[in-house]
Design goal:
Blueprint: E1 31-35, E2 38-41, H1 42-57, H2 62-68, H3 72-93, H4 99-113, H5 116-127, H6 134-150, H7 158-173, E3 177-179, E4 185-187, E5 192-194
Helix pairs in contact: 1-2, 1-3, 3-6, 3-7, 4-5
């Protein structure tokens, strides 16, 4: 079955209508999150945040971008968790993503936006994604396209976004997912990561911390 490759930036908002993931429990020590047995360490998350901050600093509007992407740690962590959930959803549906498919999708996005450099700038400014994180980010987006087509949903329609969101929520609930509260707390009603209100919780530290 041929999968329609819709450029990630064409829809305006990449994850519009797609809920975050519900879970409960306490993550392992030193982990920003744990998905099944896969630990996303605080150090690896902070490294990705630092990469974004370093890339932002090279742009003329770097200070403005830093201010606009204040909760970068939580949004980056969400991307990492979502990637694992979409991988499980692909597996459950009997779908795969080949290296060639990912390369073609990357090329589609580069052509759509006007070249690699433009893509890097737009992804950094609009998505908070560093240049070396683009491939992983686009792989998740391609997975969402495949899953949407598999269930006959359109990602550019409210109904399609709702159906895809329901699929991801069902998948996430079947998985053992826990998130370190320093990056937020799960809202099981709205399926979002809300900021923690407790001032005693330790916050990330380091040059890229937020």
């Amino acid at each position: 079955m041929a999968v329609r490759r819709t450029a990630v930036l064409a829809a305006g908002v990449l994850f519009a209508g797609i809920p975050l993931l519900t879970a409960c429990g306490t993550p392992h020590q030193g982990a920003a999150a744990v998905v099944e047995e896969d630990q996303i360490s605080v150090s690896s998350l902070q490294s990705q945040v630092n990469d974004v901050r370093a890339a932002q600093a090279k742009l003329p509007n770097g200070d403005q971008l830093r201010e606009q992407s204040g909760n970068l740690s939580s949004s980056t962590l969400f991307n990492l968790v979502l990637a694992r959930v979409t991988d499980r959803a692909l597996e459950d549906a009997g779908l795969t993503i080949s290296r060639r498919e990912l390369q073609d999708y990357l090329k589609d996005n580069e052509q759509y936006i006007g070249g690699r450099k433009v893509l890097e700038t737009v992804m950094l400014q609009q998505r908070g994604v560093a240049p070396d994180q683009i491939d992983a980010y686009l792989r998740t987006d391609l997975a969402l396209n495949k899953l949407a087509e598999h269930i006959g949903a359109r990602r550019d329609s409210p109904e399609g976004q709702l159906r895809l969101g329901e699929l991801l929520t069902k998948t996430a609930k079947s998985m053992d997912i826990s998130v370190n509260p320093r990056y937020g707390k799960w809202n099981s009603t709205d399926l979002t990561i809300d900021p923690t209100a407790e001032p005693w919780l330790p916050k990330p530290t380091g040059p890229g911390a937020v």
